[in-house]
Amino acid sequence: MAPGSTCMSIDGLDLRRRSDSLICGVLGPGLFLLLICILFYPGGRSADTEWQYNEAKFGDFTDFHPPIMAYLWSLLLDFWLDRFSIQLLHAALFATGLGLLVSRFTCSGWQYALAFWIIAAWPSIIIQQAQPWKDGGMVGALMLAGGLISGRRDRLWRYSLILLALFYATAIRYNGVTVSFCLLWWRYYDRSPQDGWPRVLRSIVAASLTAGLLFSGSQLVNGWLTGSRTYAVERTAYIFDLSALSLATGEYLLPPHMRSRPDSADLEAIRRYFNPIRVSHQEEPRSLASHERQALRDAWLSAIWRHPGTWLSHRWRLFLLTIGIGDGAYTPYIAPAVPTDLQRWFFAKIFEALVAGFFQVWLYLLLLPVAAIWGGWRRHLGILFLALSGIFVILPLFVIAPSHDFRYSYWAVVACVTAWVWLIRDLSLDAPRGWRR
Fold it and tell me: Residue 37: which of 105, 81, 95, 87 has the closest Cα?
């Protein structure tokens, strides 16, 4: 049926029709990118983004932040000398993927626009576009992959784009590998010719192997960009945990090379600089030498082996803060230094949403299993695997989070809101129970 008509199909809009494609492009990604430019240009600034921008500008890449993002940023700067370029690219990835995904479960123009904007304008989702953070890039790439996976037709070019998007997501945020696994599981399960447990096991194995290859490949590329063989993706969490355990046990647990720094020379120096709920100032924006990287990893594993209870207590306290229990959301957004009147009004509204609870990660963590159970019971692959991906991106934070920043849970919020919009749309159709995308 034509857009604007009432339909009961569960197949969604047909993007091969010019009218459907035009509506999806204008009502969704087109307006979204225009809104992002109006609300957030010339782009936010934070310590993290400034480091990456300088790396992109001068071509000196380190493993302090994902070098592949800085490298892509440097390419964009060659064509468009504006720091907003990477931010706009990440927003375009997100909007395109969301548009494809929403077109899958809506069958008219007004339904598409309503579903797209409920998700895109959700306060704790849209505000993450205010900064060129790597989290925004990861979520944009994951959303593009999800949108492509949800499509009806399987083509080599589509599969190639899925892998490329997941590669980028994994390369700029290492916890992106857990979401990549879920999305690949969705893709392989949907295309498997088998049924029953063989179908489940085969899709899990295929998704695990592909996600592992993507992760290994992304780390090799990042290491190549920094001039080293490997990429010290986990060092921030290592230093954070070792500092916390040193103070808790009264024993200096950091590796010997850290003593050369004035902020970690001894326990008293650690105590002065250490913040128990986020990474301390003991990090520095440079690539680690191979022996330093190995020494950090060995010291971290040794400390956990010797003090497992202390480590679990430290990580549990931080995890509760990460999901918003005890201290609410931390750094949910950073307002522009010199905002316009419109931006000042917008960020005031976002603050009201923060107070209203839109940034409470624990609430989304409660809703995600409900959507996953419902998707499994109704045999709805899209809802099931989106919900699982939201859960899978939060749980590893217990081990890897170096602070309780809200942005670490960004994909979980996106997955939860999208899954529930899809679920409500499915209920309104009263569609028959049976496996579908």
Answer: 87
